[in-house]
Amino acid sequence: MSNLPIDLESIAQRVGALIEPVTGKSLLEIGAISDLKFAKGNVDITLTFGFVCDGLQQALSQQIWQSCQTIDGVESVNVNIDCVIPDGRHVAELPLLHGVKHVIAVSSGKGGVGKSTTSVNLALALQAEGAKVGILDADIYGPSQPQLLGVGGQRPEAQNQTIMPIVSHGIACMSMGFLVTENTPMVWRGPMASGAFQQIIGQTQWGELDYLIVDMPPGTGDIQLTLSQKIPLSGAVIVTTPQDLALLDAKKGIEMFRKVHVDILGVIENMSTHVCSNCGHEEPIFGEGGGALISQQYSTQLLGSLPLSLSIRKDADSGRPSLIADAESDISLRYREIARKVSAQIWLNGKAKASTPMIEIDND
């Protein structure tokens, strides 16, 4: 911007040097300033991010105003913040996924760590931050999403050999739980479950979505490999507790995704502390620091830590997850922060891959 008038140059430098809180990078570094005008003392700035950012607008606007108001001649600042989620990769043989920009796997090495509850709240948090979101319950043997979304017992409609997802709280959902009764066990061998999973994801009319969250079954079996190899995942989120046993299994999940070249977007530590509802005493009953340690070991980020909370369990069991039960609670705000980090990491990974030069070898 060296050819700009000095007043506009000053504004561009001031704003460009500000640190965007989710990525930890300057606005100039991530190319967020898409338009900048200055006339008659009025500054008009448009920031465009490739990740969800509704929760950042007030803080960023205030930060930009404080930075610009000390510049001589600036009387007012108007900040517009846009979120434009770029397309990810698509699957030619699964045309019903072509409207889905990104597929995110939420995985855990073992059961009982709160993966399904995290999946639904992550989906709702992404939606609260401005994205169009769907959720696929890939746990064929123990589907949870119908209960979590309060739509248990409903049946999806079939249209022209495709399935219409059930919509709850604005989230498009598909699950094996919609196709069988609550008391029907899925006594299937691995290949049958894997085939059912491919049919569900490939025949569902997902429509236009920014993100499709896949609530994975625990472990590293057939369905995990099928998803990783058949679907171009934008990344995986690992859910664990601080307990050593859970961390051991979480490491196996990370190693599996690394073997099939799927980016690890980060780790979510569930049940990090317990707060006594009577006296308020807080205690890390499952250990502490495990999520940060495993994130450091695998050069990824700790997306967030969530407490062992009675409200999370009650809200989930009632079919009104935390983001719906109380959108402004501390728990909901934590999920929204996690959602911004997940979305931003996908965007940063995409930018990094797009800027990587392709090497061609010519035999001539």
Explain this structure.
- It contains 11 helices and 15 strands.
- The protein has helices at 6-16, 57-68, 115-128, 145-148, 190-203, 222-230, 244-259, 290-297, 310-317, 322-325, 330-355; strands spanning 33-39, 42-49, 76-83, 100-107, 133-137, 158-159, 162-163, 166-168, 171-175, 209-215, 235-240, 264-269, 274-275, 282-283, 302-305.
- The strands form 4 sheets. Strands 8-9-5-10-4-11-12-15 form an 8-stranded mixed beta sheet, with helices on both faces.
Helix/strand layout:
Blueprint: H1 6-16, E1 33-39, E2 42-49, H2 57-68, E3 76-83, E4 100-107, H3 115-128, E5 133-137, H4 145-148, E6 158-159, E7 162-163, E8 166-168, E9 171-175, H5 190-203, E10 209-215, H6 222-230, E11 235-240, H7 244-259, E12 264-269, E13 274-275, E14 282-283, H8 290-297, E15 302-305, H9 310-317, H10 322-325, H11 330-355
Helix pairs in contact: 3-11, 5-6
